[in-house]
Write a structure and sequence with these properties.
This protein is α+β, with helices and mostly antiparallel strands. Helix content is about 60%, strand content about 15%. The protein has a five-stranded mixed beta sheet, with helices on both faces. Strands 2-1-4-3 form a four-stranded antiparallel beta sheet, with helices on one face. Helix 10 links the parallel strand 8 and strand 9. Helix 1 packs across helix 2. The two termini are about 100 Å apart.
Length: about 425
């Protein structure tokens, strides 16, 4: 049993006693109120009858005069005055020509209410100018109860009943509810995390009602059960915490492994697996980026496309393993010759390589690439039977460059110019460098 249950019990006991006294008081108030309402209804009925008799004497002549003068606005004003001063519900003025003027709210046909009808005559008229139908509000109980004087009487009666109820509640509180309040305060101090020995329910004196002493014993049992359940839940919570920690550690390890794999995949997607140079995808992005920078800054950019001569013949003679080693050796040579942070060397595929050199014009890049070609030739990788002279593995190079004097429309146009220069070098006998026109 919790604090809310005790509070509800306390309220229930208090409400039963108060309810009995309230019912008695309200019954008395209802008897006197009914008698007073009946008296008020009789007085209002008499007053309404007098008002209906007086209305023709007061308003028949003014209304007839205004209608004779064709002043309907004044007639409507008089009708509004009648509604305001005499508590009339609705007025209907029927003119001789068939028109109707209404004020207030006329009841539906067939409704039984107090009403009156009188004709409008003038000394000069041979026939009535019209007639007035007056409807008074029905004198029902709801109508009477809406009047101020009766409300004051009812308020006085209800105040008397309220005082009687409060007195009864005070008596109940003195005899029973103070014990319940003491028990409620002790329950508010209840702490389920403490063992039963730390909580004392000895609050109900021996002369307290038997129900309170039974409640005390039940609460002790509840506290002991809660303590046992708390211990079990704490054990389960500790086990769950350990499992969560283990799963969190495993999740972090998996996330780190996934992140590492993603970085590896990202690197592989832009690196040639055999040579370790950038691949075609990385080169294409770098070429577009550097070409736009050269256009924007009006700077220089050199692009060299290189192809190992008669490489298929080399593979046939020495095998593909030796061919892979030759490609790796050429990649190392490129990395050694072009070390700037802005330089980019890449393998486009097969035996074709490329070098992107920001800041170099056609002639300055030509010297570096001619030296590269000589260094590669000096390695003396034999290629017997090759159509190239001396029977060694050589390289052909096509070179293009972007500058203010020789601009290209796009990065692809610049790459195509280097490819065409490479084709010219191949056609001219290989082992040479050709400049783009």
């Amino acid at each position: 049993m919790n604090t809310r249950s005790l509070t509800d019990m306390q309220a229930a006991v208090k409400s039963r006693t108060s309810l009995a006294l309230l019912v008695l008081g309200l019954s008395l108030a209802a008897v006197f109120g009914a008698w007073r309402v009946q008296q008020d209804l009789d007085l209002r009925s008499e007053q309404q009858a007098l008002d209906l008799k007086a209305l023709p004497l007061i308003y028949a002549e003014p209304l007839a005069r205004t209608l004779a003068q064709a002043r309907e606005d004044q007639a409507r004003s008089l009708m509004a005055t009648m509604l305001q001063r005499h508590g009339i519900q609705g007025l209907e003025l029927k003119l001789a020509d068939g028109r109707k003027l209404e004020a207030g709210r006329m009841p539906p046909a067939g409704t039984v209410q107090a009403h009156s009808e009188f004709a409008l005559l003038t000394p000069l008229a041979d026939s009535p100018l019209g007639s007035v139908h007056v409807v008074m509000p029905a004198l029902t109980l709801g109508h009477v109860l809406s009047q101020d004087r009766l409300q004051l009487q009812l308020a006085q009666d209800l105040a008397l009943v309220l005082l009687l109820g409060l007195a009864a509640a005070w008596l109940v509180d003195r005899s029973l509810l103070r014990h319940l309040r003491r028990l409620t305060e002790e329950i508010r101090r209840f702490d389920a995390s403490q063992p039963p020995s730390q909580f004392d329910w000895s609050i109900a004196p021996r002369h307290a009602p038997r129900e309170l002493r039974q409640m005390e014993a039940a609460l002790v049992h509840v506290q002991q059960s809660v303590d046992s359940q708390l211990q079990r839940e704490q054990s389960r919570a500790d086990a769950l915490t350990q499992e969560i920690a283990r799963q969190s550690a495993a999740l972090r390890a998996a996330e780190q492994a996934l992140d590492s794999k993603q970085r590896e995949l990202a690197a592989l997607s832009r690196v040639d697996a055999l040579t370790g140079l950038a691949n075609r995808r990385e080169f294409d992005d770098a070429l577009r980026r550097e070409f736009k920078r050269a256009q924007r800054q009006h700077s220089q950019l050199a692009l060299a496309v290189m192809d190992l001569d008669a490489f298929k013949h080399f593979n046939q003679v020495h095998g593909h393993g030796a061919g892979d080693q030759a490609l790796q050796a050429f990649a190392r040579l490129l990395s050694e010759r072009f070390k700037r942070d802005t330089d980019l060397v890449a393998r486009l595929g097969g035996e074709e390589f490329v070098a992107l050199l920001p800041g170099f014009d056609l002639h300055s890049a030509q010297g570096l690439l001619e030296q590269l070609r000589e260094d590669w030739r000096s390695l003396g990788l034999l290629n017997p039977g090759s159509p190239v002279s001396d029977g060694v593995l050589t390289v052909s190079i096509g070179l293009s460059a972007y500058s203010a004097q020789h601009p290209y429309l796009s990065s692809q146009a610049m790459l195509q110019a280097a490819d065409e220069a490479l084709a010219i070098a191949k056609h001219a006998g290989r082992d040479r460098l050709s400049l783009a026109a």
